[in-house]
Design goal:
- This protein is of the alpha/beta class.
- It has a single domain, classed as Rossmann fold (3-Layer(aba) Sandwich).
- 30% of the residues lie in helices and 24% in strands.
- The protein has helices spanning 14-24, 44-50, 66-78, 96-101, 122-128, 164-187, and strands at residues 3-9, 30-37, 55-57, 84-87, 106-110, 133-140, 150-157, 191-194, 197-200, 203-204, 210-211.
- The strands form 2 sheets. Strands 3-2-1-4-5-6-7-11 form an 8-stranded mixed beta sheet, sandwiched between helices.
- The radius of gyration is 17 Å and the shape is globular.
- It starts with a strand and ends in an 18-residue tail after the last strand.
- The structure holds ligand NHR and glycinamide ribonucleotide.
- Residues 87, 90-94, 99, 108, 110, 119-120, 141, 143, 145-146, 148 line the site of ligand NHR.
């Protein structure tokens, strides 16, 4: 059985695209069962449609409150029996009920080196703080916003003349490497969350997660060869 992903988006979906490309290149043995957006206009929905993936759009205006909206998401997603729920630029805070329903199966990519710069506008905050290193983090989602256990991070330098856009572009390029790689570990059944924390092959991982540029042997994958026709 291939590992089934559900990808949640709100916007452009470039991380979704990186995951689609990785699957199509034969590097990520998983399938995207469904893409769910909370924005009808999300450009990422077109990426899903183009790749032949089922899409769901839920509009918060049709629900009385966050609890009802999140229950509707659960009802829709569970029909697709996802093994992992992938937040990829999903901009809506999830209720404890949602987080607990998918406990150990819910993963986010956040555009900072967590635990630094939780929340929004992370690139601006990194520049204003005078950081020389910035990056992105993949973590299991918990009730603490951007505070769940970290799985892996990738760094970029902050350059003297950076603005929000130049820095964001540099970080996003690393997101497209990092997220498919982490999902590879998930798809292989190697990456779990239990009461002891994040486990890889049944062993605890470093407290701030793996560094993409210093992965232990066995976590790196040879680049895919030419695709067979
Ligand atoms: N939900 C929980 N419970 N825990 C996390 O760690 C979550 C989460 C939902 C989304 C992604 C996150 C990020 O990577 C994420 C992590 C949205 C907001 C936010 O303030 C904050 C963090 C993240 C996503 N959202 C506003 C809200 O009221 C709306 C902002 C907007 O629409 O522009 O939901 O940074
Ligand atoms: C990504 O950079 C992701 O890290 C960030 O939004 C972008 C989504 O881009 N996520 C958050 O800020 C979550 N609050 P994409 O839609 O093109 O993948």
């Amino acid at each position: 059985m291939t590992h089934r992903l559900a990808v949640l988006i709100s916007g452009n979906g470039t991380n979704l695209q990186a995951i689609i490309d990785s699957i199509e290149a034969g590097q990520l043995p998983a399938s995207i069962a469904v893409v769910l957006s909370n924005k009808t206009t999300a450009a990422g929905l077109q990426r899903a449609i183009r790749a032949g993936i089922a899409t769901i759009t839920l509009n918060k205006e049709n629900y009385p409150d966050r609890a009802a909206f999140d229950q509707a998401m659960i009802a829709e997603l569970d029909q697709f029996q996802p093994d992992t729920i992938v937040l990829a630029g999903f901009m809506r805070i999830l209720s404890p009920a949602f987080v607990h329903h998918y406990s150990g199966r819910l993963i986010n990519i956040h555009p900072s080196l967590l635990p630094r710069h939780k929340g929004l506008h992370t690139h601006l905050h990194a520049i204003e703080a005078g950081d020389t290193e910035h990056g992105c983090s993949v973590h299991f989602v918990s009730d603490e916003l951007d505070g769940g256990p970290i799985i892996a991070r990738a760094q970029v330098p902050v350059l003297a003349n950076d603005n929000e856009e130049t820095l964001s572009n540099r970080v996003q390029a690393r997101e497209y490497e990092l997220y498919p790689r982490v999902l590879e570990w998930r798809a292989a059944g190697r990456l779990t969350l239990d009461p002891r924390g994040v486990q890889l092959d049944g062993q605890p991982i470093p407290a701030d997660g793996f560094d993409l540029d210093q992965l232990p042997a066995g976590l790196t994958t040879a680049p895919a060869g030419p695709r067979r026709s």
